[in-house]
Design a protein that fits this description.
Elements (H helix, E strand, L loop, with lengths): L13 E5 L2 H5 L11 H10 L4 E5 H6 L1 H7 L3 E4 L1 E2 L11 E2 L3 H6 L2 E10 L4 H17 L4 E7 L9 H14 L4 E4 L5 H10 L4 E5 L6 H13 L4 E4 L1 H4 L4 H13 L4
Parallel strand pairs: 1-2, 1-10, 2-3, 3-6, 6-7, 7-8, 8-9, 9-10
Antiparallel strand pairs: 4-5
Length: 253
């Protein structure tokens, strides 16, 4: 079955709102407003995001609000907390079938390359990818170099390596953490081949720097960005979403 990417992109570009940090980081990222998933759904709707990214619990508990917003849903199928002190391992906690039942139009899965457990995650991703593609929905691979295997290695080279892994395992989209300059980003996009590249927004930074980062990402040839904290921790997330979206779709040349 042909995989349908058009539901989560516009004219080949993508602008995603990520809100899967609650499991990975705990509530330390939240305040009285953004702790409420309904506020995030409102930002996604008014900010005209191509999709919003949730873990299965929020997708289930706030399913009515998500469907009413008409913003496409991407569900993250695996996750872990920040509390474990062992090598990084993020196992599946939601099935493709569950995600589809909740209305997801795409699914995501994190792989920590360089971890002692990367083979477990790579195998699990393969199973997920086969099922998702059989049902015609795309799979996004969050690929982050972590663990003992990456110590002492160049972050820029690891970024390009992550992109190449995304292509080699057959991901439709690979989501990466940005490292280096515009040239490094461009090389990373080349390494991904026909796999689309989406760059993570990362930690909260000054708004001007955040918007410049998005411009670099688009200039490098990436498909788009998956932003979270920089949007929903902003003083005016609706205005910032508008400015960021303009860069993704119009003003990055």
């Amino acid at each position: 079955m042909k995989v349908k990417l058009n539901k989560i992109m516009t004219k080949g570009k993508a602008f995603y709102l990520a809100y899967d940090q609650g499991m990975e980081h705990g509530p330390v990222e939240f305040n009285d407003k953004n702790v409420d998933p309904r506020y995030i759904i409102e930002i996604a709707q008014k900010g005209k995001f191509n999709a919003m990214i949730f873990q299965k619990g929020i997708a289930e508990k706030y399913n009515k609000e998500i469907k009413k917003s008409k913003v496409p849903l991407i569900i993250k199928l695996n996750g872990k907390t920040s509390l474990s002190q062992t090598e990084p391992l993020s196992k599946q906690i939601c099935s493709v079938k569950e995600a589809l039942k909740l209305g997801a139009v795409a699914v995501g899965y994190t792989i920590y390359i360089g971890s002692d457990y990367e083979n477990i995650m790579l195998k699990e991703f393969d199973t997920i990818e086969k099922e998702a593609h059989a049902r015609g929905i795309p799979v996004i691979a969050w690929i982050y170099p972590r663990g003992k295997g990456v110590k002492g290695k160049s972050p820029v080279e690891l970024m390009a390596y992550a992109a190449r892994v995304g292509l080699e395992i057959g991901a439709d989209i690979v989501k990466l953490k940005r490292e280096g300059d515009l040239h490094d980003l461009h090389w990373t996009v080349q390494c991904a081949g026909k796999t689309k590249v989406v760059v993570a927004g990362g930690i909260k930074e000054e708004e001007g720097a955040f918007l410049r980062d998005i411009r670099d990402v688009m200039r490098a040839g990436a498909m788009g960005v998956a932003v979270g904290r920089n949007i929903w921790k902003a003083k005016n997330p609706f205005e910032l979403s508008k400015r960021a979206r303009e860069i993704v779709f119009n003003k990055y040349s």
